[in-house]
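Readers outside the structure-tokenisation community will struggle with the description of the input data as it stands. For illustration, here is how one protein appears when written out as sequence plus structure tokens:
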Amino acid sequence: MSIWMGDLTREEVAAIAPEGVAVLTISATEQHGDHLPLHTDWRIGSHITEGACRLLATELPILACPVLPYGNSHHHFPWPTLSLRSETLIAVLKDLVDSLARCGFRKVFILNAHGGNDEAIRITARDLARELGITIGAASYWTPAWNRLRETLDRTAPQITRVPGHAGDFETSVMLAIEPERVRMNRRSSVREDAPQHQELRNRVFIQRPGNSVGLAGVSDDSRHADAEAGAAAIEAVIEEVAAVLRSFHRG
């Protein structure tokens, strides 16, 4: 049986829901420099979701919702980007989780694949767990996988330092591994790094300036170190760690 909810009939979903976990993944459709497609976050999020759910499919009842391709991406304007306001994104998430509860799911996990959505998934989980009386988990994919990711990259590509970054070494490596035909390495943008004092401050506090927040090039770091093998190892580590979290979430 497919792990994707959209592939199943209403009876099949209804049979899984009471004891199952619904995974609601959200991502973004936003500029990723001149070398990566707008759907990069959606593609990575979909790959992780499918991989993790397939690992668990024989162990526990689990279904993946269609991956939401939009998020809070205003900070990527004026480049081509589709964005939801924060209040709109939270409203959409609440409606979708409410729908899953009406389907009979008592456990919903919101998996995020775009940094701009991180606060929204936590607010949604906190509010709806109380309102709906169900258990809701929420995490950006890199959070539970952080230690494993760092160990994997230190072994395979220590030059990749920013994770996940934006259209830099990490995301480019992952896309080279899972969708190489969409990567245009000959179009990479050069990056002007922040002044040291600005970077040091950003490591300690959240700062949002007017306009875009990823620099003049629209990327977080230069992708010259991108490597397909490192990307494959990294994304496999993420899949395994996300699967471990979902397994514990189901048991808890």
